[in-house]
Write a structure and sequence with these properties.
single chain; 11 strands; binds pyridoxal-5'-phosphate; Aspartate Aminotransferase, domain 2; 12 helices; Aspartate Aminotransferase, domain 1; alpha/beta
């Protein structure tokens, strides 16, 4: 049996959790929370990081921080996970869905400007499969209209945007960015997330929202002599035991990334050699690195994809499709403005994700490739 995903354990998770317990501070914002935040700030050049219990929570914090309110419009790709939109819907925003590019599931940068109105309060981009959205043209449009950009970087840890012989970490462009450490992501703590605050003016309020609307973080740094209720907020901090688990992953990120990228490249090598005209392989644009988060195939349609899923499953291999477009979702379809988003539907219907996780072997990849080749010989 080859599962779709298998969470990787680096080996030091329990050691760090034991240490957190021995330290006597296992609630939020303890030793390991601070270690993870500092390491992330140093590794990727983020201004300030706050661990959260999920990426969904980090996105909710972003929506609160930007004071998104009823009547506001937020531009979001339709081909994404529910949380990207949910965080803004909870604040009363109207979601204006953008389509995907024709050659990649990421948001169509050129389709954004004509969606901007007087009411647009934020643009949210998703770096699908850890592949960068083309950030320079996107930021140019956003800056010209003075609209803040938020990056849903849930899948984009240790991935970069490339331009003018430079590289800049994904998550460092938006005023705010959100990462996920859910067990399906490259590094993980079961559930977990992180808010990145790149605008220094938002840091103080972010800490307050993080700590249930209180100025507790400032108090423990000795900056105020008592703490109390000063703003809205919620309990967005993970326990330090979660952070201890995450720290064991963060310090091994080079090893994890090397493994995942090797596996990704091996899939690519197999399928390129297979030369099957009925399968399209993923595009890595010249402006993006590949962080090995996901390997997918583009098939001819929903029917052949379903039959291939059944075929692989019958042979013990779990391959899965991905998002149903949010503009067609049960919850939002009646609220959507009715525009059709053909590329979002194209990727929803034809994209198939193959197993990709640390313990996967080249032999297993060979088997998956062979099963797919045999399927196309008969179908
Ligand atoms: C995984 C994911 C999320 C949600 O992350 P959680 O940590 O589970 O809340 C949000 N957006 C995208 C694009 C994701 O891939």
């Amino acid at each position: 049996m080859i599962p779709f995903n298998k969470p990787h354990i680096t080996g030091r998770e329990l050691e760090f959790i034991s240490d957190a317990v021995a330290c006597g501070h296992i609630s939020g914002n303890g030793k390991y929370t601070k270690l993870c935040q500092k390491l992330s700030e140093e590794s990727w050049g983020f201004h300030k990081c706050l661990l959260t219990t999920s990426c969904t929570d980090a996105l909710e914090m972003a929506a609160i921080l930007l004071d998104i309110a009823p009547g506001d419009e937020v531009i979001i790709p339709s081909f994404t996970f529910v949380s990207t939109a949910l965080a803004f819907v909870r604040q009363g925003a109207k979601i204006v869905f953008a389509d995907s590019r024709s050659d990649h599931p990421g948001i169509d940068e050129l389709a954004i400007e004509h969606l901007i109105t007087q009411k647009t309060r934020a643009i949210v981009v998703v770096h699908y499969a850890g592949i960068a959205v083309d950030m320079n043209p996107l930021m140019e449009v956003a800056n010209r209209h003075k609209i803040p950009v938020i990056e849903d970087a849930a899948q984009a840890i240790e991935s970069y945007y490339l331009y003018d012989n430079q590289k800049k970490a994904l998550g460092s462009f938006g005023v705010l960015s959100a990462f996920s450490f859910h067990e399906t992501k490259n590094i993980q703590s079961g559930e977990g997330g992180m808010l990145v605050i790149n605008d220094p003016k938002l840091v103080q309020r972010a800490e307050i929202i993080w700590e249930k609307g209180t100025n507790r973080a400032e108090f423990f740094r000795g900056e105020v002599n008592k703490y109390g209720w000063v703003d809205v907020g919620s309990s967005f901090l993970p326990a330090d035991t979660i952070a201890a688990f995450l720290y064991a992953q963060l310090i091994e990120i080079k090893d994890i990334q090397k493994k995942r990228i090797d596996l990704w490249n091996n899939y690519m090598r197999l399928f390129e050699k297979g030369d099957n005209v009925r399968i399209q392989l993923p595009l890595i644009p010249e402006y993006s690195t590949n962080n090995g988060h996901m390997f997918y195939l583009m098939l001819e349609g929903i029917d052949i994809r379903q039959r291939l899923i059944v075929h692989l499953k019958a042979h013990g291999v779990l391959a899965v499709f991905h998002y149903l477009p949010l503009h067609l979702s049960t919850y939002y379809k009646d609220k959507h403005d009715g525009r059709s988003l053909p590329y979002s539907e194209h990727f929803a219907d034809k994209l198939l994700r193959l197993p990709l996780y640390y313990e996967l072997t080249f032999e297993q990849q060979e088997l998956i490739f062979t099963l797919i080749r045999e399927f196309f010989e008969k179908n």
